[in-house]
Design a protein that fits this description.
Layout lengths: L2 E6 L4 H13 L3 E4 L11 H14 L4 E7 L3 H7 L7 E3 L3 H11 L3 E5 L5 H13 L6 H16 L1
Length: about 150
């Protein structure tokens, strides 16, 4: 079973809580990396880094879900970690292509711009779409890994 790490800042807190319910209804193993309550003084880099670190420990068997108001901040932070391929998805089709083509392992969502029903569809697509493993996609991911090592 895939391990799911989820986190948000105060701006994404309400959506995070609703996504957790959907995840538990689907019997996923979910760890909430915080916050436990909306705290206006929190900083999204702290939570995004905590989720990305956990996924980076086992990127083949873990996935991350991050939410902030725009989705940009958490996405930027997650992509600073080796082995993390985070993508901000605005639709289920976005999430499908990210998983299928790029083996995305962290999903970033925009709490201010994504309604609950769409967010749940995006999340479910992210969690159920396998990586295609075609040579061209694998080659590109290998090139990303080389860039991570040299920069």
């Amino acid at each position: 079973m895939v391990k799911i790490y989820i986190g948000s800042d105060h701006g994404g807190f309400a959506l995070k809580e609703r996504l957790k319910v959907a995840l538990k209804n689907d019997v996923y193993d979910v760890t909430d990396m915080g916050p436990a309550a909306p705290v206006p003084e929190d900083d999204y880099p702290d939570i995004a880094a905590a989720v990305a670190r956990k996924v980076a420990e086992n990127p083949l068997e873990a996935r991350g879900i991050l939410i902030c108001r725009s989705g940009f901040g958490v996405d930027i932070v997650a992509n600073k970690f080796d082995g993390i391929r985070s993508a901000l998805a605005a639709s289920p089709d976005h999430a499908y292509q990210g998983r299928h083509d790029d083996d995305v392992n962290v999903l970033s969502l925009a709490g201010d711009f994504t309604d609950d029903a769409t967010a749940i569809k995006i999340m479910k697509t992210f969690l159920t779409t396998p990586f295609a493993r075609e040579e061209r996609y694998a080659r590109r991911i290998g090139k990303i890994a080389e860039i991570e090592k040299t920069n």
